[in-house]
Specification:
405 residues; alpha+beta; Rossmann fold; BirA Bifunctional Protein, domain 2; 2 domains; six-stranded mixed sheet; five-stranded mixed β-barrel; 12 helices; 29% strand; binds zinc ion
């Protein structure tokens, strides 16, 4: 239970003006975030709750697909980044000088760390295949970080890495992850507007990679969706003239979109660089095939804020809202009753914000405003008036009418 009388963070009367997007203004106004510097944010308690809920939805799906969770460090050794040739080739790699003239990397991704890590455990065909994932903070040394969605210097990501005996078994797993990702975005309420999108495979593979793109006005990418078969393509692989890679049709719609996830075939690029091989049934040395699968947890949260925003606040889906109920209590004498109600709701439902702030005449307006700004799905009012008549009033946030309980 979050008792607002003890909660140190207040909402603001008006929206602070920021240069990029309105959801950032709303998040600042609601007391969910504060900026540390461009591209770096403090996540205040209610925002942190949303983050954890998104993280757990992702975690549940990863565990359900038999991936093992581990935690690799945010700080990486220069030796590992040199081994894969990326110490110099990634221009946004954060390089941190350390004592004794050493240097480390603040990892922007972990292929370079996980591959040497698992080398010890892959000897024979019996050790394959397997997959591990972690949820960790990542860093990019962006020259021009912006606030809001676009270029971040620090962000939270889930990444999964899979290792396989051959390309066929890799492909089976890769196709399965497409379904896992589709489920994740459906659970987050983004399913209707999130498209698996063909994108460039980079220099790792001659195949396409797949991005998961959510249609969004402020999105940083352009996607083309085929009118005839719904296949989505990133602008980067289509260029000026569109022809659907699946059905050949030229009819399409163009959307701005924001990337919330991506899955990559890596072939043997990293396993070869790190000398990871296995012995097959005949003792013959074979290359190990690899894939990586990312979901930007913090980015998803920002995309959701933008996607679910309306005139008054951010209409979080119930699965990720900071709390399930917001109880407005008026009258000092009623706090105990409200607190009991909150406990009852928490035992059966989800977390409650109890607005038990007292000492001002105009609290009702302020409290209702905060409840709407935070868009908690269920709002309950418990006041001398409601108690006299029937008990308390409750409404679903998206309904206009009050139901009386
Ligand atoms: Zn098509």
């Amino acid at each position: 239970m979050i008792q607002l009388s003890k909660f140190p963070i207040n909402t603001l009367k008006s929206q602070p003006k920021v240069s990029d997007n309105r959801s950032t203004s709303l998040l600042l106004q609601a007391g969910l975030i504060r900026q540390e510097m461009a591209g770096v944010y403090n996540y205040l308690p209610l925002w942190f709750k949303v983050l954890k809920k998104i993280e757990n939805i992702v975690r549940e799906e990863m565990n359900a697909s038999w991936a093992f969770e581990l935690l690799m460090p945010a700080l990486g050794s220069k030796q590992h980044w040199e081994q894969t040739g990326r110490w110099d080739s990634i221009d946004v790699l954060f390089k941190v000088p350390a004592s004794g003239g050493k240097e480390y990397a603040l990892n922007p991704t972990q292929e370079d760390i996980v591959t040497p890590l698992i080398k010890e455990f892959i000897q024979s065909y019996k050790d394959l295949e397997f997959w591990v994932y972690h949820i960790q903070h990542k860093f990019r040394n962006e020259a021009r970080a912006k606030s809001g969605l676009l270029r971040w210097r620090e962000f939270l990501m889930k990444d999964l890495y899979s290792f396989h005996k051959n390309e066929e078994s890799f492909q089976v797993y890769y196709d399965n992850q497409k379904q896992v990702y589709t489920r994740v975005f459906e659970k987050l309420g983004l399913g209707n507007d999130t498209y698996m999108t063909l994108a460039s495979g980079g220099d790792f593979t001659d195949k396409h990679s797949h991005e998961f793109q959510t249609i969004l006005d402020i999105g940083e990418d352009i996607i083309y969706i085929c009118d005839d078969c719904n296949t989505s393509h990133n602008e980067e692989i289509v260029g000026d003239s569109f022809a659907c890679s699946n059905c050949g049709s030229g009819n399409h719609k163009t959307h701005k979109a924001s990337e919330v996830g991506n899955i990559f075939p890596l072939s043997t690029k990293f396993t070869d660089a790190c000398g990871v091989k296995y012995a097959d049934e005949n003792g013959k040395e074979k290359p190990v095939f690899m894939g990586s699968y990312g979901i930007g947890i913090s980015r998803v949260m920002w995309v959701m804020a933008e996607y679910f925003m309306d005139e008054t606040g951010i209409a979080w889906p119930e699965a990720v809202a900071p709390a399930s109920h917001y109880i407005i209590v008026l009258g000092e004498d009623n706090i105990e009753k409200a607190s009991e109600l909150a406990k009852q709701i928490e035992s059966e439902w989800g977390e409650v914000i109890l607005d038990d702030r007292m000492g001002r005449k105009d609290w009702f307006g302020q409290k209702m405003g905060d409840a709407e700004l935070l868009w908690i799905p269920n709002i309950i009012v418990l006041s001398p008036k409601t108690l006299e008549k029937w008990g308390y009033e409750v409404r679903k946030r998206w309904e206009k009418e009050w139901a009386i309980v």
